[in-house]
C-alpha cells in the first residue's frame, strides 16, 4: 500500500512539472523573471507535496495502528470463539454423559421396580405358603394322622363297614360270595332268598416306620372281624372273633427290601413292582372281590 501511494504522488508531481512547458521570450530579462517565478512555484508545490505525503504517511500509520488493533480484536474474538466452541463441546460431552447416566439410572429404576414387583409376588407367595403351612401345622396338631415316639412314626388306620347282602337264591353264606358254589335251579336252596347285614369287615391297622443311618424299618399290622369261633353265630350273640389279615416287617437298605411275615402273596397283583401296601385290589364291596381275581395271603 505504501508503494502505491508513493507512485501516485510521483505521478502527480511529474504532471505538475511538465503540464505547461516554458515559452521562449524574446528577451533574456523576461526569461530570467519567468524562470525565477517558475522555480518559486515548483518549490511551493514540492512543499505541499511533502506535507501531503507526511499527512498520508500519518494516515497510513494510523490505519496500520487501527489494522493492528483490529487484528488484535479479531484474534481476541477468535480466541473467545475457540473458547466458546471448546466450552460448547465440553457442555455437549457433559450433556451426553448426563443423558447416558440418566438412561442408566432409568434402567436401574426399571430393574428396581421389577425386583420390587418380584419381591411383592414372592412375599405374597411366601405369605400364602406360610398360611397354608400354619393351617397344616394347626390341623396336624389338632387332628394328627400319625404319632411320633422316639424317632418312630406310628400311623393308625382302619374303617367301619356295614355291608348288606341280598340273594334271591340262598347260598347259606356270609357277606362274601362263594362264586364256585352258586346253586342250580334243581337245588332246594335255589327257591329260597336270603338277606344278611354285618359290620364284620370293619378293619383296624397300624403302620410303624423308623429310620436308621443305613436302613429304613417298617412294620405293618392289619385285622378285621371276619373270623368265626366255635360259638360264633349271627342268630343269637353275633360273637364273631378278631382275625389277623397282615402282620409283617420290612428293612430297606440301599434299594433292597427284605420283608417277612404274613402279607399278600405274589399271586396278588400290585401297582408297582412287588412293593407292600401297593396291591391293586378291585374296588368292590364283596369280601370275595370279583370273579377272575386271584389272591392269597
What does this 3D model show about the protein?
This protein has 297 residues and is of the alpha+beta class. Among the domains are: 1-6 and 45-84; 108-144; 163-198, no CATH class. Helix content is 44%, strand content 21%. The protein has two helices and eight strands, in the order H-H-E-E-E-E-E-E-E-E. It has helices spanning 2-18, 28-142, and strands at 147-149, 152-159, 163-167, 194-198, 203-211, 216-227, 241-253, 256-262. Strands 1-2-5-6-7-8 form a six-stranded antiparallel beta sheet, with no helix packed on it. A two-stranded antiparallel ribbon has the order 3-4. A hairpin with a 4-residue loop joins strand 5 and strand 6. Helix 1 (2-18) packs antiparallel against helix 2. The model is unreliable at 17-26 (pLDDT under 50).
Summarize this structure briefly.
With about 300 residues, the chain is an alpha+beta fold. About 45% of the residues lie in helices and about 20% in strands. The longest helix is centred in the N-terminal third of the chain and has 115 residues, at about 30-140.
